[in-house]
């Protein structure tokens, strides 16, 4: 039993190494200008290629929502993905559609919370400005009545 586990673990490690090599090769296809990073726009552009789509499908990676997939790879939220983020991101989401859906939901929830916080700050500022203006006008109204 122990020997079977070791053989199984060794096979999994070899498969993981091969997947990493294959993903590195895919990265080479994506990074045509060899800039060592890929922006969201460049990723979108590359995803139009039938060759690239075929390569992603080999890994059972569903990239129907390109922006959401990019966000999952862009762990540091820099707007760019380097080869390491690309490989780790692809390995993380490979064949795990439920986890991808969860990751997308979490990402979208975070972005929504950030937008709501920003909107609330704007409303609070406008409310303060409005109150100041009302106080100013009521002070002028008292002067006019006197």
Automatic annotation (TrEMBL):
InterPro entries: EF-hand-dom_pair, EF_hand_dom. Gene3D superfamilies: EF-hand (1.10.238.10). It comes from the Eukaryota. One of its GO terms (molecular function) is calcium ion binding. Residues 61-96 form the EF-hand domain. This is EF-hand domain-containing protein. It comes from Noctiluca scintillans.
């Amino acid at each position: 039993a122990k020997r079977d586990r070791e053989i199984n673990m060794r096979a999994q490690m070899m498969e993981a190494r091969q997947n990493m090599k294959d993903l590195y090769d895919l990265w080479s296809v994506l990074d045509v200008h060899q800039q060592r990073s890929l922006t969201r726009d460049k990723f979108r552009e590359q995803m139009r290629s039938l060759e690239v789509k075929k390569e992603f499908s080999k890994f059972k990676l569903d990239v129907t929502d390109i922006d959401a997939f990019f966000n999952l790879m862009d762990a540091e939220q820099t707007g760019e993905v380097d080869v390491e983020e690309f490989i780790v991101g692809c390995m993380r989401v490979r064949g795990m559609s439920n986890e991808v859906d969860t990751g997308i939901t979490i990402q979208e929830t975070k972005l929504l919370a950030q937008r709501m916080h920003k909107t609330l700050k704007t409303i609070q500022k406008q409310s303060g400005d409005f109150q100041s203006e009302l106080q100013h006008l009521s002070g002028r109204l008292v002067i006019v009545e006197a």
